[in-house]
Each structure stands twice: as structure tokens, then as C-alpha cells.
Design a protein that fits this description.
Strand content: 15-25%
Protein name: NetB toxin
Largest sheet: 2 strands, antiparallel
Keywords: Signal
Radius of gyration: 24 Å
Pfam families: Leukocidin
Distance between the termini: 82 Å
Strand order of the largest sheet: 1-2
GO biological process, one term: cytolysis in another organism
Number of helices: 1
Oligomer: single chain
Number of strands: 4
Helix content: under 10%
InterPro entries: Leukocidin/Hemolysin_toxin, Leukocidin/porin_MspA_sf
Length: 128
């Protein structure tokens, strides 16, 4: 008499978050490299990095066209996307495999962060 037991167990976890102001683009995914770009799209008001008005310039982070205190005319943190005001730290997961006989593997992880400088011109004064 013989007996046998077969069993399997599978776990999958997905992490997701809303990022309406940003778009994640996978640049490469092959046996040696996986990479993504995360690009800014536009604010809740529809302004993007290239928006321009002949009188007001780029209103990307301008609170109001009618506000006359330039140094206080930046969009309030509470009105910005949480990804801008709260910091942007995306989570990523990657499954790595190696040949059965591999004794050693080299894994390089690179994370780059880029900042933009926003300038608000108001008459003959500039605020940063």
C-alpha cells in the first residue's frame, strides 16, 4: 500500500496607490534590467510644467491671479496633490531568479530623485 500527498501554496501581493498627477512608465524589462520613469502630468487645476499664460506666466503653483502678495501667492500645501506635499516614495517589487547552480549574483539597485525649481514672477519681483 502506498500513500502520497500533493500540496501547493501561492501568495501574491499587489501594492497600488492613486497618482493622478503622475504617470509611471516602464522603460525596460528584460533578463538583466528593469527600470521605470515616473513623470509629472498635471495638477488638479489642469496646469502642467509647460503651461503658460501671456500675463500670468506659468500658474502651476500660483494660488490666485488676483492675489497681490506675491510671496504668499503659492498654492497651499493642503491644495496640492498628496504626492507633492507629502513626499513621493513609490513602492516597487521585482522578482529575481538565478540559474540553479549559481553561487553568487550581483544585484545593483539605483534610485534617482530629481527636483524642479518653480519661480513665480510678480511685476518686477521674483519669489522661489
Amino acid at each position: 500500500a502506498g500513500a502520497g500527498i500533493n500540496a501547493s501554496y501561492n501568495v501574491q501581493n499587489t501594492i497600488s496607490y492613486e497618482q493622478p498627477d503622475f504617470r509611471t512608465i516602464q522603460r525596460k524589462d528584460d533578463a538583466n534590467l528593469a527600470s521605470w520613469d515616473i513623470k509629472f502630468v498635471e495638477t488638479k487645476d489642469g496646469y502642467n510644467i509647460d503651461s503658460y499664460h501671456a500675463i500670468y506666466g506659468n500658474q502651476l503653483f500660483m494660488k490666485s491671479r488676483l492675489y497681490n502678495n506675491g510671496d504668499k501667492n503659492f498654492t497651499d500645501d493642503r491644495d496640492l496633490s498628496t504626492l507633492i506635499s507629502g513626499g513621493f516614495s513609490p513602492n516597487m517589487a521585482l522578482a529575481l531568479t538565478a540559474p540553479k547552480n549559481a553561487k553568487e549574483s550581483v544585484i545593483i539597485v539605483e534610485y534617482q530623485r530629481f527636483d524642479n525649481d518653480y519661480i513665480l514672477n510678480w511685476e518686477t519681483t521674483q519669489w522661489r
